[in-house]
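Why does this matter for the project? Reviewers at the last site visit asked to see concrete outputs rather than summary tables. In response, this paragraph embeds two records directly. Each consists of the residue sequence and, immediately after it, the corresponding structure tokens. Nothing has been edited or filtered.
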Amino acid sequence: MEDKWDLVIAGAGPAGCALAAKSAAHWFRVLVLEREDEPGRGRDWVVDVENRL
């Protein structure tokens, strides 16, 4: 089966995560690519982004 994405985001920083969350809320199929082990590694902004959605 072939994966199809409406939006591919490079980077799971604040902007990438916010864009992914907003897009997914509108039923877009989103793929986020990140070079680190996990999104927002070592940052506390992830909780802030989740709270604002």
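We now turn to the second protein, recorded in exactly the same manner.
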Amino acid sequence: MKAASRAAAAAAVALLAIGACELGLRGRLGGDPGRRERLFLDETRYLHEESRAPFFRGTVKGGSEFWTTARPRANPQEFPAAKEKGELRVVVAGESVAQRLGSGDLERAFSNFFPERRARVVNCGMGTYDAYRTMLSVSESKPYAPDLFVVLAGNNDGARPETLSYPAYRVNLFLRSFWLWRLPQDWLAARFRRADPRAVESRFEERLRETVRAAKRMSVPIVLCTLPVNLRDYPPLTERAMRHFIREEFAQAVELDYRDRCPPSRNELIRRVAAEEGAALADLEKVFARLERGTCPGWDMFEDGVHFRTRMYPIVTRTIAAAARIGPRSASDFHAVELAIKPWPPLDFSWKPGPELDAVLLAGIADALQAGLQEPPILLERAVAKFMLVERVAPGMLSRRLSDRDAIARDLAANPSTRSLSAEVSHGWGSIERHSAAALKRLNAPRVPKRRPERR
């Protein structure tokens, strides 16, 4: 009994000492170090739990079998299990750039280049998916009877782990709410978990080749797409890259930045894999460069760093359909695709107030909120750039929209990619004001008036 009492007393003393240290650290460094990470718990579940669910589930209607969307956040779709006579079933896989490819636009493009077939597009694109998850999407698609795969991947392949145990992540996330656990873990991560860019690119290439080979095993042709990005008007995240961006060395800035955009070198890798593995190539990067007539793509073609503006989709879908019609060729043979998609469709690059500009503003607000969650808070140039675009196109719009916090919170909550930030609007309002003030100052516009803090 005495030994047990002494052990209990020692444990109590140790716990009191640990508690005192933790309270001291919280007083010095802040009260809840895990708050920011908990905001994005849904994103981790989305990538590491929900991505394991089948994309479609079989249903029966009127005696016929159908495939119906089963995976959370996927585009809602329903299509018959049995193909119609003459049907060309095109399965699109990849990230959000793939998910945003409207089935109607792509089906019309394929109908133009395959007039003898009736195209049906099955969209398996998912926001934030990397090449690994794209490969899994293609590999599971055999039951859907594909005749062609179209793959758009390359913007989301950074240092993030491909897989993790979600229950273990939850436990670690709880422990990271304590400074005594978080500080040594962060120190070890900074010391030993440095991402090697060559390893990141090697992993991307391996997954891309596995994707093509999965299609070959099904005897289904595949089209790989290069991914153009906003080079000219979308500031990088790292200081090293920003130095090149300021000097208008835009391609080099993307190469040196955090891998949240497809750099030119990765597009060269996609071309090489397509040539070596016998895949067709839709060289969207070269098409966008040709449309720019020698300048770098910017806000005229993109609504952020990677997502095309609505008016770009006709040329995107025509390029993909032309590549599928031509089939595998040399990766340098852009001339054939260029001839296939001529005449170039008329494009109006101007911006006007409307849903497209509203989306840019909402993305800027989300960026500003995330900048305020950093330790310490930062000024994110991407948020400033988006606010400046909004104010240039629609003077006064920034001030009007930022006068209604409740509406902003509702808009954030309605978008799956920003839902986790909707509860942070009041807490992070100071960061939104800092970014809007910086944008208006650079444009020499009147500043957004500050509101008094809301009482809780």
